[in-house]
Specification:
Layout lengths: L6 H17 L4 E4 L6 E9 L2 E8 L10 E6 L14 E2 L13 H17 L4
Antiparallel strand pairs: 1-2, 2-3, 3-4, 4-5
Amino acid sequence: MQWYQTPEGRERLRLETLQMNRYVPSFSLFHDDQTGKLLWCGSLKVDGHRHEVRLVYDNDHPYEKITVFVFREQLPCVNNHIHQDGSICYIANNEWNPEWTAYAVYVTTKRFLEEFWSGRMR
């Protein structure tokens, strides 16, 4: 059984959906039939660069962090925060907290991309 199929998971997903729809209506929730994972997919423009962003829930969510993939304008792998598969390391693994929501990850991803394109990220 996936996390979002439990009563607690359904309620959490309902609240996260309300939050995402309110603050990031350009993102949509999808179900990957092959992996059984849920993901938010949308477009994010930062400093003139447009990216397709996917926020993928882990099967052990909320105890494992949401994985973020950045596509369309591929980020160059210039540091340890950007991986070949398009995923980014937006926080250290030990910083993840089960209280984080998809919206919190979205905001952190936007800040990550702003720091990357401004040259502040090393």
